[in-house]
Amino acid sequence: MEILDLPVQSRDKLGSAHSRRFRRAGRIPCVLYGRGQDTVSLDTSADGFANVQSQHAAVVRLELDGKAQTALIRAVQWDPFGDFVQHIDFVRVEMEDEVKLSIPVHFTGTPAGAVAGGVTQAVRTDVEVFARVDSIPSEILLDIEALEIGDTIYVEDVEYPDNVRPASLPRDLIVHVVEPKKIEEETEEELEEGEGAAPEGDPDAKSDSDSDS
Questions:
Q1: What's the pLDDT tens digit per position in 77-122?
Q2: Distance between CA atoms of residues 47 and 194, nearest Å
Q3: Beta strands 27-34 and 85-92, pairing class
Q4: Which site among 108, 138, 187, 206 is 20 to 30 Å from 99 CA-CA?
């Protein structure tokens, strides 16, 4: 994964009112902490961070006053409607550090079982891993073309790059190919359960105490 540069500025005006002013000016409030050093309040360009997100970067090189600090994007806080980023947490890291993070999973190929009439179900779209900062992959590619009906791929079946190991449970399911009949049966069971349940507030649904009176 390429480590992108992200210019930041020191931020001495704190509080929600000042944060709103920063956001209106196209800036995002953020903090940098970790490695036993003081927490620093910063802000960065919304457009610059959008570029970082578009490339699915997990680690950036923060540029402040001519100095650079490698940092992991620990948390991104969005507004309630998911329209813009409200705040970012960065954690100081070094290239040899091992960090825990989620890596997106992308599938290639059409499963043989799907060609034969089966249904491909992707259960996970990302996998949690432990990875060295200098070895973080931008994605995990899974070739699923050979999957027949009934075949599965679990976390433990994935071939991980050097210096990367799974943090998710070994038997966590990522993708499988199932028979269409199984999908239909599950749908019918859900419909039957919905029809059998008495709706809340139904005047015709009597409790045991009503029937005994």
A1: 998 988 889 999 999 999 999 999 999 999 999 999 999 999 999 9
A2: 47
A3: parallel
A4: 108
Structure tokens at 162: 């050097």
Domains of the chain: 4-93 (2.40.240.10), 100-194 (2.170.120.20)
Only one residue has tokens 């970082």, namely 52
Phi, psi angles (nearest 5°) of residue 209: -65, -35
Q: Which residues pair with 104 in a beta bridge?
A: 126
- What sections of the chain are H helices per DSSP? 16-24, 46-54, 112-115, 180-196, 208-212
H or E stretch covering 201: none
* Cα–Cα distance for residue pair 190/57, rounded to 1 Å: 40
Residue with tokens 């999957």: 147
Q: In this structure, what are the phi and psi dihedrals at residue 47, rounded to the nearest 5 degrees?
A: -65, -40
Please state whether 201 falls in left (phi above 0), alpha (psi between -120 and 50) or beta. Answer: left
pLDDT exceeds cutoff 50 at 207: no
Compute the distance between CA of residue 175 and CA of residue 131 in angstroms, rounded to an integer: 22
124 neighbors 174 (Cβ within 8 angstroms)? yes
Tokens linked to 137: 């992959």
If we measure between CA atoms, which residue out of 57, 30, 33, 55 comes closest to residue 44? 30
Which residues, at least 6 apart from 200, have a Cβ–Cβ distance to it below 8 Å?
none
